[in-house]
Amino acid sequence: MALRLPRPHRVDVCAAAAGLLGGLLLWGIGLGTRPAGEPVVLLHGSGWVLLPLAVTAGCELLRRTAPRTALLTGTAALVTDTVTQGNLVTLLMYTDLMYAAVLYGTPASARRIPWITGLLTVVATVVPFAVWREPEALLIGVGTGIVAFAPASTGLIVRYHRDAAETARLRAEQTALLAEMDRTQAVTAERARMARELHDMVANHLSAIAIHSTAALSLDDPGTSREALAVIRENSVDGLAEMRRLIGILRDSSGDTEPAAAPTLDGIGALVDTARANGLDVALDVTHEKVPAPVELAAYRIVQESLTNALKHAPPGRVTVVLRQRDGLLAIAVTSPYGDRDGPRAPGSGAGLVGMRERVALLDGTFEAGPETGPDGKVWAVRAALPLTEGDWA
Hints:
This protein is α+β, with helices and mostly antiparallel strands. The protein has two domains: 10-173, no CATH class; 265-394, Histidine kinase-like ATPase, C-terminal domain (Heat Shock Protein 90), CATH 3.30.565.10. The protein has ten helices and five strands, in the order ααααααααβαββαββ. The chain has helices at 10-28, 50-60, 67-81, 88-104, 107-132, 138-218, 222-250, 268-277, 293-313, 351-362; strands at residues 281-287, 318-326, 329-337, 366-374, 377-387. It has a five-stranded mixed beta sheet with strand order 1-2-3-5-4, with helices on one face. A hairpin with a 2-residue loop joins strand 2 (318-326) and strand 3 (329-337). The longest helix has 81 residues, at 138-218. Mean pLDDT is 82; it is low at 254-259.
């Protein structure tokens, strides 16, 4: 397989062409960097000066794609140029090769070349002056510094700023990506929170409506139908009120409708009374002191969803709700009869258990739900333990 050389950059092609044409112009008018009679000129004849000029111009084509090769070849061409009459454009193109080798070369080359050229500049300054003891000898070091050290240092500075700008760009992109991830996670968490609130606030009322409307349709008893319709109306009004409260939470300002305060443990008694009105036989046993607001909300929603599930799925029997505060935890236990049924009294989505588990996980608590065998037979038990120390879940 043939080796395919990288295509030169368009700017490098222009630089090579301009350098070659400029060098030919200086050669055409007979302008060199040193007189033909100097002892250092070993290759006499004006044609020899074109060889290093052409080689250096060719190296300009490789200044980006192969900067190290271009610098080494250009150095050989510059050495050849020093034993001819010389061409100023060759020197100028060589300084560009030195600059490009630092700017576009490997990090190792970028570190080493300025040190090497700086050392050569010092040697070219000290040694000739020590040998000849003439002030003019210092000009050799000055020339070496201009041709080698100055462009290498400039390339290093430009590379440093370029790398710093690239690092800043990457950091800005990373920051923007992290910000977008945080925003997405915040939106997802808020959507999940609102889904839990909507389910917990409305599902209980809708389940009661579905159950009592079924009873009203299936029983040909005006008295029973009237009672069912009363329960349906009460749950409809309460459900509508809950929806309005939810809209108030979603809005910053909802006119004269202010967001309702979050439910607390003091409202569990009213919650149980509503469940009893919907047909559940509920026993309540609550003992607690002051607990943090997030724990109160989670506990209220867990009891609410457990009673809703019992209303939909449990066979007739006693439902017990127990809340105890001990050892820095608020323990919740809701048990209901468990047995075979033809089907649920109202359809469910299965999101209730998921929502309860998510609420407990947000507070770093423990949650379990499933059938158990107790003194009164087989029951469905929902148990949760919520830490009361804010540092555990804040």
